[in-house]
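pls read this stuff:
=====
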Amino acid sequence: MTILAIETSCDETAVAISRNGREILANEILSQSDLHALYGGVVPEIASRNHIQAITKLVDSALEAASLQKSDLDAIAVTYAPGLIGALLVGVNFAKSMAYGLGVPLIPIHHIHGHIAANYIAYPELRPPFLCLVVSGGHSQLVDVRGYTEMQIIGSTRDDAAGECFDKVARVLGLGYPGGRALDELAQGGDDAAYDFPRASIEGAPLDMSFSGLKTAVINLIHNAEQKGELLDRPGLAASFARAVSDVLVPRTIVAARALRYQAVCVAGGVAANSRIRRDLEIAVKKEGHTLYLPPLALCGDNAAMIACQANFEPKPGPLDNLACNAYATMPL
């Protein structure tokens, strides 16, 4: 089955084409990060307008890269939730029009399901069930992946997501947007014991997380140093912050893996590109005797290949079944 997928949940316009879910024939991504860097973060209206301008050309580019015609497509998949509502509507409406015009089914995909499915592309041998740590810009969750479409959250953040904290700390440090990669680069060679930051725990909920206190502690430290004219050890601060985030995520992942007794532990989402978190997970999971599946960096961030992959495992609708599909800013997993 040949599926063209569209992903416009935030500030990347992405189009991909897959065959049978795991073979990616084209994977086109147009980032808007340079535009939003001027404002220190994503401006929803700008994101939506640029999706409109880019999406048609990107679809044509993907078809050309795959050496296919529109008539070769068996279905159109699209991210419909969660995300920026205006950005999602661009992708959903374009996908609906394309599916209707071609007379093929439309397959709506949950964005987080897509992130998890990125592991199927990188590791064709991977099959559910497994545990997945989802760490994207707006989500920090431990997910029991019981099947390709059957998933349950067993632990999550009670407030901010880890990715939000990385971006906010990077912004306060003047590292710009997107901040995760810049903060990771700054941390290289830094002393991860230079600053002692809090690690929160939730009484009665050992798998749940909280990052708001950590974020506040780091930002207050930076502001206090600026007000007093004190020099900060910026690499040490970045390394200490990354260590604190990892110290929240990794132990809970191990506790969840023990509870579920799954051999496979997966990671998904943009924060999975962080070198400290990747390294700590590799060490901890290996020590437990489990197998860790880390997607390559190119599949950690938002992309349409993951959406195309997940679409292959969804129930196949009829050509007109989902044409009333809408976009949603929030949606349970």
Residues 234-260 form the longest helix (27 residues).
